[in-house]
């Protein structure tokens, strides 16, 4: 255990989202074997008290068995799945393009395999470079294609903060610390969750497309499904007073209070 004296001044004004989320990641792994009595269950019970919208079905907290649990942070599933599937990515990328077209309500757009070289050459162009490469090579894309491939680029660059797999459910958390939520980013996260649950569900251990939803974690001022004050209460039940994670999350909550956000 770390004593308070081991904290630095910076620990009490560190505004980096990753820092506090790393402690949350640790907290949610504590006592997983206790299932419905675990810190993870306490966390999810609060989330489920809000009417989060599920896709592909619906679940209540009482429906959770906690028989299968996986927790990931800063998830780049699309980026890594693409790398893992190389060089046989044509079918995957065409299906991804179709999904994004549907999300963006685009009727006409060339699929990935229909793009001119070098845009669809995986040896020289990564999917997050298609727009830039088209511009540098003076390759004209239609307005619709610019929308679709710009969206694809954003998805390959995005790293949703926290992903929870509970039984047959996929939950994606958009976490903020001192910042307000960005609705454009939130919509992109929802689109990413749809792609994961449609194209990549087997990579996450599901046998069929899962029920999925996204939720917000942040300062109470911004009205998320769960806030950092509720998280510190879980940490206080889990850890001793001099535990580093408990201290760090408490320092974060105190910073939010100074900013009048909590």
| Class of secondary structure makeup | alpha/beta
Give the strand line-up of the largest sheet.
1-2-3-4-5
The termini sit apart by 28 Å
Order of helices and strands: HHEHHHHEEHEEHH
Cα gyration radius (Å): 21 Å
- Output mean pLDDT: 94
In terms of DSSP E residues, the strand content is: 5-15%
- Given the C-alpha coordinates, what overall shape results? globular
Give a count of the beta strands, DSSP E runs of length 2 or more: 5
**What helical percentage do the residues reach?**
40-55%
What can be said about the biggest beta sheet? 5 strands, mixed
Could you explain how this protein is built, in words?
The chain has 262 residues and is an alpha/beta fold. It is 43% helix and 10% strand. The chain has nine helices and five strands; from the N terminus they run ααβααααββαββαα. Strand 3, helix 7 and strand 4 (211-218) form a beta-alpha-beta unit. Helix 8 runs antiparallel to helix 9. The relative contact order is 0.18.
């Amino acid at each position: 255990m770390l004593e308070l004296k081991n904290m630095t001044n910076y620990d009490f004004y560190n505004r980096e989202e990753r820092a506090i989320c790393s402690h949350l990641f640790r907290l949610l792994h504590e006592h997983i074997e206790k299932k419905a009595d675990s810190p993870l269950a306490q966390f999810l019970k609060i989330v489920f008290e809000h009417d989060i919208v599920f896709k592909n079905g619906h679940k209540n907290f009482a429906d959770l068995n906690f028989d299968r649990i996986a927790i990931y942070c800063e998830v780049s599933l699309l980026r890594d799945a693409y790398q893992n599937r190389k060089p046989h990515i044509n079918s995957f990328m065409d299906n991804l393009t179709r999904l994004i077209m549907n999300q963006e309500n685009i009727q006409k757009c060339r699929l990935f395999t229909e793009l001119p070289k070098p845009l669809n050459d995986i040896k020289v162009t990564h999917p997050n470079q298609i727009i830039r490469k088209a511009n540098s090579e003076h390759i004209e894309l239609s307005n619709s294609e610019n929308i679709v491939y710009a969206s694809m680029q954003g998805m390959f660059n995005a790293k949703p903060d926290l992903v929870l797999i509970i039984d047959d459910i996929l939950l994606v958390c958009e976490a903020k610390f001192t910042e307000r939520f960005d609705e454009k980013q939130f919509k992109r996260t929802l689109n990413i969750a749809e792609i994961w649950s449609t194209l990549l569900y087997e990579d996450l251990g599901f046998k069929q497309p899962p029920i999925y939803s996204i939720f917000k974690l942040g300062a109470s001022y911004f009205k998320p499904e769960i806030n950092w004050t509720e998280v510190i209460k879980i940490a206080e039940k889990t850890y001793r007073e001099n535990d580093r994670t408990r201290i760090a999350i408490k320092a974060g909550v105190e910073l939010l209070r100074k900013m009048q956000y909590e």
